[in-house]
Design a protein that fits this description.
Blueprint (H helix, E strand, L loop, with lengths): L2 E2 L1 E4 L15 H14 L3 E5 L5 H13 L4 E7 L2 H11 L5 E8 L2 H8 L3 H15 L6 E6 L6 H14 L3 E6 L6 H14 L7 E6 L6 H10 L4 E4 L13 H10 L1 H4 L1 E2 L7 H12 L20 H9 L20 E3 L5 H10 L6 H17 L3 E2 H14 L4 E9 L7 E8 L2 E8 L3 H13 L4 E9 L8 E9 L2 E9 L2 H22 L6
Parallel strand pairs: 1-10, 2-3, 2-9, 3-4, 4-5, 5-6, 6-7, 7-8, 8-9
Antiparallel strand pairs: 11-12, 13-14, 14-15, 16-17, 17-18
Helix pairs in contact: 1-2, 1-11, 2-3, 5-6, 7-8, 11-15, 14-15, 16-17
Bound molecules: 3-methyl-2-oxobutanoic acid.
The site of 3-methyl-2-oxobutanoic acid has 9 residues, from strand 6 and strand 7.
């Protein structure tokens, strides 16, 4: 009988700690809905003490999302635990996740505390959190660089205090499978009361080994794995949910372990997280990258045509990706068909949003011969983003070419009022960005600019992703259009709106 592994998704907490990936509370709720459809067991919704916006998002998710246990992160401090407990209060099933570093380097330089003091603080935090729920997870931060004997002692003490899950973070991604697997095995063999708790893996990807380490943890006795959609997370990211789930699904001969994930929801989740965080998925990313199911070599194509399994270990359908990009709607399609197709893609829009999205779809269908699912996803996700915008792009006109000075004229709407300005730049996109900066009175630094076609063909939608830095914080955003200058302006305005949101929410403290 296969062991059932608990999937603990931390896209909305560790994932959101990716530089530039901040999400608004409504965007977090949208992703949480998709994570519930995906079938994650535990959904870590945020770190409520970090900002009022994060506390609000956790509270809304706890109130709205049915199915997964909702978790929130807290340091081993009473105020953190109080705020987490309050945010989680409406959840049917809730978990408080407490962390405190245990490694020598963190003890000496960060916490300036001795072993005994760390153990005492961990125990008292777990005991305090038990007042609010009996589902408590404890993470000894930087566990993989902690002395094993001390780690065993702390784990034993927090389990005695009431922790029901003990998570073993490889916080800095330093572990390798040959070390991380035995670390988990050592805990299973040396912590006397380990039968009262589940061992969990949490692996960062600094050496590109997060998935491999997590699988080694599972093979050595871990019953829970922490992961994120697309592997997003602090620095080089976290273990990728889709990679772990598909490895377990495809290799029962090695792991004899199963999950409750509905794999056909993976692609939708990946696409949604990428769009709402503004973080593009690299084309060769395992499972969800654009090239993951494409075959270029003649020998491979021949093999695929003769028998798919010659060069494919899983089907695109198994992760919810249509084999061929399906033409779903055209310019004669009606509102009803449009709504039905969106529902099939996992999007729920209110009447006003649907009306607006439908108008955009008609507009696009006039410009493009074929409208694909990816086009629809781009329209809807932009629509959802726009509902919370401070600035709306109304009009963009540029003139550029050899021998002319690139100039942009931009019209924005703010609080129902139209504002307009024009400026020159090094090219049409630069001219747009200079104009917008002047109009909104902000001068962020453009860190990244990437352009790609959403679908195939000369009339494809262009998608621009930008990453901006403003006063030490970073934001990412995207924009789509058949006109790449307009897509560039949309992405920039959307990023400006995110900066505005962080300004009004009073900023966010990182873990
Ligand atoms: O990387 C880490 O140590 C963490 C813990 C809070 C689980 O994110």
């Amino acid at each position: 009988m296969a062991r059932r592994i608990t999937i603990f998704d931390t896209t909305l907490r560790d994932g959101e700690q990716s530089p530039g990936a901040s999400l608004t509370p409504p965007q977090k709720l949208e992703i949480a809905r998709q994570l519930a459809r995906l079938g994650v067991d535990v959904l870590e919704a945020g770190f409520p003490i970090s900002s009022p916006g994060d506390a609000e998002a956790v509270h809304t998710i706890a109130k709205t999302i049915k199915g997964p246990v909702i978790a929130a992160l807290a340091r081993a401090l009473k105020p953190d635990i109080d705020v987490a407990a309050k945010a989680l209060a409406p959840a049917k099933e809730r978990r408080i996740h407490i962390f405190l570093a245990t490694s020598p380097i963190h003890r000496k330089f960060k916490l300036r505390k001795a072993m005994e003091e760390i153990q005492r603080l961990a125990v008292s935090a777990v005991k305090y959190a038990r007042r609010f729920t009996d589902n408590i997870e404890f993470s000894p931060e930087d566990a993989s660089r902690t002395e094993p004997e001390f780690l065993y002692r702390v784990l034993e003490a927090v389990i005695d205090a009431g922790a029901t899950t003990v998570n073993i973070p490889d916080t800095v991604g330093y572990a390798v499978p040959e070390v991380y697997g035995p670390l988990i095995r050592g805990i299973a063999n040396n912590v006397s009361n380990i039968d009262k708790a589940i061992i969990s893996c949490h692996c960062q990807n600094d050496l590109g080994l997060a998935t491999a380490n997590s699988l080694a943890g599972i093979a050595n006795g871990a019953g829970q794995v922490e992961c994120t959609i697309n592997g997003i997370g602090e620095r080089a990211g976290n273990a990728s949910l889709e990679e772990i789930v598909m490895a377990l699904a495809l290799r029962p001969d090695v792991y004899n372990a199963s999950t409750g994930i509905r794999t056909k929801e993976i692609y939708k989740a990946s696409r949604m997280v990428s769009t709402l965080t503004g973080m593009l998925v690299q084309p060769n990313k395992a499972i969800v990258g654009e090239n993951a199911f494409r075959h270029e070599s003649g020998i491979h194509q021949d093999g695929i045509l003769k028998h798919r399994q010659t060069y494919e270990i899983m089907s695109a359908e198994s992760i919810g990706l249509n084999d061929a990009q399906t033409l779903v709607l055209g310019k004669h399609s009606g509102r009803h068909a449009f709504r039905q197709r969106l529902q099939a893609l996992g999007y729920e829009l209110g009447d006003a949003q649907l009306q607006h999205a439908f108008a955009r779809f008609k507009d696009l269908a006039d410009k493009k011969k074929e409208v694909f699912d990816e086009d629809l996803a781009a329209i809807v996700e932009e629509e959802q983003g726009e509902a919370r915008e401070t600035y709306k792009l109304v009009y963009v006109h540029t003139s550029a070419g050899s021998g002319t000075v690139p100039t942009a004229t931009i019209k924005l709407e703010k609080d129902g009022k139209l504002i307009q300005d024009a400026a020159c730049g090094d090219g049409p996109v630069d001219a747009c960005y200079k104009t917008i900066n002047r109009m909104v009175g902000l001068h962020p630094e453009l860190l990244d600019y990437a352009l790609r076609a959403v679908t195939k063909g000369q009339d494809a939608l262009g998608e621009v992703a930008v990453r901006l830095r403003h006063k030490g914080g970073e934001v990412s955003a995207r924009g789509t259009s058949t006109d790449i200058v307009e897509a560039s302006a949309k992405a920039y305005v959307s990023a400006i709106n995110k900066i505005e949101q962080t300004r009004t929410a009073g900023g966010k403290r990182r873990r």
